[in-house]
Design a protein that fits this description.
The complex is a heterodimer of chains A (165) and B (419). Chain A is mainly α. Chain A is built from 6 helices and 2 strands; from the N terminus they run H-H-H-H-E-E-H-H. Chain A has a two-stranded antiparallel ribbon. In chain A, helix 2 packs parallel to helix 6. Chain B has 419 residues and is mainly α. The chains are: A mainly alpha (165), B mainly alpha (419). Chains A and B meet through helix 1, helix 2, helix 3 and helix 4 of A and helix 1, helix 2, helix 3, helix 4 and helix 14 of B.
């Protein structure tokens, strides 16, 4: 099932990608839990409120979820109804899975494309978030995330085809 | 055409396409039919960043994964055994109570069967309970506790239904207890004459077990006490839990090595990502469905055939049982609650009560053949064929069904503690 097993540079890219996902997940999760905890301590012990913290935490949750969804695509852990897996005869399973991967890649591609235009518009209108920050910086995770999910499912699709030959 | 696309998407979902893709495709085909630019998908998805309590989900999920990594499950079993082992049917009761507590803290990811069931199943068999009873019990216990704070499905329902999560936490107490009590009574009744060993209660063992679990014991008290007393908001309690569990597991007990942290973060966040991705897509699809008036039309169609809240609840229960057998609880909440809630409100059903009924009924879905999740985890974990797991679990499923009916038709059970 490792699609990249034959090309050393692809293997390296895979490892790099996985490491990057893990690093981002740790930074985002560590950051948001620390901030959430610090907020409680500051409020209860020092009576200091951080008015900007809630907004940042919510954005961090979005980023965390998108990065995690990219990781879930790599691990094949997106939530699905696994009825067919159990009921289909063996020889049909692979073609059906390939078809599902292709469908998912297509949906993710559409999502990536339209989020890209969402980010472009937001940049053109100079939307802001958290006071004065340009909103498109935070929104740009959407096209990037959907594009990577798409890439992941294209790889899965190719791997299915290869294994099926 | 609309029907053809709908059917196609249902087939894709049943064939195993990821649900986020199916939901996104259905929303996009709807929006494009209405001539709305599809960047609306991104706008709606970005709404995730405007949902306040959502942060509790990654926090509690991580804490739950971390807890099941260390020795907490073993200590929990030992402590409950010391406290309840002397009762007839005591070990069965212990299993139920320990699993419920553990599931409440770890969410509904099947981790209870793997972490606790693996300890309890051999203990039950060794104590003289029949293998079939023991297998059914640990399988059924795997999702017990969904109604207790701070379980993820409760939080997710609060987020989706925009209902106060503190109220949901309180509302779940009595219905959750009802399930525990009825299952315990069943275990007691079935084993009243059996030779199942009873441990003589020993004060020394209780003290030793308490001492061993002294670092975990404050956790439910701090978290639940904090939430129920209103001292902590839900997301604050989640942050406190993460810090507390991390310090206990990594620093004080050192049961989990630091280098596992990356793996635990990844494993737990992958689940979070999968849930939130579906949530994001369904924010869009729900908005579309409400725009075109689907809930209103549903209400009109339903009220032609259904008169009054009683009949509506009956229909709802049947629907949820079928739904629970094919769809996991998180997707079901995110997809179905926004449609059912407005209809239920028109029938005069309290949104908090609806939430408890919804989750209780979906809890059965974990145990409903042919595809209930717990059945598979159990069959895999204990190396029994799936059909014998079906049979072993069936009596427990029937008891739980009775509970769900009571919970549905006695709203006071959910609402009483809310005053």
């Amino acid at each position: 099932m490792e699609p990249a097993s034959r090309h050393p540079w692809l293997v390296r890219a895979e490892n790099l990608g996985r490491g990057l996902e893990n690093a981002l997940l740790i930074v985002l999760f560590g950051g948001l839990s620390t901030l959430a905890f610090a907020q409680i301590v500051l409020r209860n012990v020092f009576s200091i409120g951080l008015p900007w913290a809630d907004g940042i935490i919510r954005l961090a949750v979005l980023w965390l979820a998108v990065v995690a969804a990219i990781a879930a695509s790599r691990d094949g852990k997106h939530i699905a109804i696994n009825l067919a897996e159990r009921l289909l005869p063996d020889r049909l399973r692979r073609p059906v899975e390939a078809l599902m991967d292709l469908f998912t890649a297509a949906v993710a591609a559409l999502l990536a494309w339209h989020s890209w235009s969402f980010v472009r518009d937001s940049r053109a209108f100079e939307d802001v978030l958290l006071g004065t920050w340009p909103a498109w910086i935070f929104q740009s995770i959407l096209p990037i995330g959907f594009a990577l999910v798409c890439y992941r499912y294209v790889l899965r699709f190719v791997a299915q085809l290869r294994a099926g030959r | 055409m609309i029907i053809a696309i709908g059917l196609l998407l249902v087939v894709l979902a049943l064939l195993g396409a990821p649900l986020f893709a199916v939901i996104a495709a259905s929303a996009m085909s709807g929006f494009s039919r209405e001539g709305i630019d599809l960047s609306v998908m991104a706008i709606e998805f970005f709404g995730i960043a405007e949902t306040p309590v959502l942060v509790a989900i990654p926090l509690f999920t991580f804490a739950g994964f971390l807890l099941s990594e260390g020795g907490a499950p073993g200590r929990l079993v030992r402590l409950s055994q010391a406290l309840l082992g002397w009762l007839p049917g005591g070990l069965a009761m212990i299993s139920l109570a320990a699993c419920a507590l553990f599931t409440a803290f770890t969410g509904a990811s099947g981790v209870t069967i793997v972490a606790l069931g693996a300890l309890l199943f051999p203990a039950l068999v060794q104590a003289g309970y029949s293998e079939r009873f023991s297998l059914g019990l640990v399988t059924a216990s795997g999702s017990l506790g969904l109604l207790f704070a701070p379980s993820l499905p409760l939080i997710l329902y609060g987020v989706v239904a925009e209902a106060p999560i503190d109220d949901l936490f309180i509302a779940g107490i009595l219905p959750g207890m009802l399930m525990l009590v009825l299952l315990s009574l069943y275990g007691y009744w079935l084993n009243r004459k059996s030779r199942a060993a009873r441990e003589a209660g020993s004060v020394r063992e209780v003290l030793a077990a308490i001492r061993e679990a002294r670092w975990e014991l404050p956790l439910p008290i701090v978290v639940l006490g904090g939430i129920y007393s209103g001292y902590f908001a839900v997301s604050e309690a989640a942050a406190v839990t993460v810090f507390y569990v991390a310090i206990v597991e990594f620093v004080i007990l050192r049961e989990v090595p630091w280098r596992s942290a990356a793996r635990i973060v990844r494993d737990s966040m992958v689940l979070v990502g999968a849930i939130v991705f579906i949530l994001g897509m369904s924010l869009a699809s729900t908005n579309y469905l409400i725009d075109v008036g689907v809930p209103q039309r549903m209400f009109e169609i339903i009220s032609e055939h259904v008169s009054g809240p009683g009949m509506f609840l009956a229909a709802l229960l049947v629907f949820l049982l079928v739904l629970g057998a094919i769809l996991d609880i998180f997707s079901a909440i995110v997809l179905v609650v926004p449609l059912v809630l407005p209809v239920a409100l028109q029938f005069g059903i309290h949104p908090i009560h609806l939430g408890i009924v919804f989750l209780a009924a979906m809890e059965l879905g974990y145990l409903t053949p042919p595809v209930g999740l717990n059945l598979f985890i159990s069959s895999y974990r204990f190396e029994r064929d799936i059909v014998s797991v079906y049979w072993a679990t069936l009596p427990f499923l029937l008891v739980l069904m009775l509970c769900v009916v009571i919970i549905a038709y006695v709203p006071e059970l959910s609402l009483f503690l809310l005053g």
